[in-house]
Structure to design on (178 residues):
């Protein structure tokens, strides 16, 4: 949820009891190549999976947490199966079309949440690489919109582009160039 640019992307993944996917863990603890390999396995072996997103304007209008919950709701609603219970990473439970339970550090503890974390990150990273062709000066293919030193330097020099979340202070401050 922390990038300075791009949408919030969430995923919902339904795994069967014998999914057979080895190596599921928090997407932030995996290399890019491991995430991509696992994502292919998740697409092939999951009972169902879907993406949801909140666009930059929604992030700015709602705030990033509410936008994340909106993306989660959209991901659950995009599933072809009907859920009785959704397990959600975090402290709080968003309003979903089914019952939900929050699990702190669920992306490290629950295989389906780990799988959702991986699918969402792979999808968002691919989108940010595609946006790099439109806005090459920002380096989105490298930092994926996160506030790296290079991204902050380019932001200070060029100001924001339409992918930037204006409600985030570093972007708002960079957009006030003389």
């Amino acid at each position: 949820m922390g990038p300075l640019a791009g949408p919030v992307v969430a995923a919902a993944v339904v795994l069967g009891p014998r999914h057979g996917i080895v190596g599921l863990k928090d997407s932030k603890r995996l290399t890019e190549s491991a995430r991509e390999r696992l994502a292919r396995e998740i697409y092939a072996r999951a009972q169902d999976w879907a993406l949801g997103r909140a666009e930059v304007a929604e992030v700015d209008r709602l705030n990033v947490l509410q936008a994340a919950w909106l993306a989660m709701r959209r991901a659950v609603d995009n599933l072809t199966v009907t859920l009785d219970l959704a397990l959600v990473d975090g402290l709080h439970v968003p309003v979903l079309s089914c019952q939900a339970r929050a699990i702190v550090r669920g992306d490290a503890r629950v295989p389906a949440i780990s799988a959702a974390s991986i699918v969402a990150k792979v999808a968002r990273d691919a989108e940010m690489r595609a946006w790099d062709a439109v806005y090459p000066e920002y380096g989105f293919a490298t930092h994926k919109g996160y506030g790296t030193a290079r991204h902050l330097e380019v932001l200070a020099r060029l100001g924001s582009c339409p992918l930037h979340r204006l409600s985030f202070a570093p972007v708002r401050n960079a957009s006030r160039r003389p």
Observations:
- The mean pLDDT is 95.
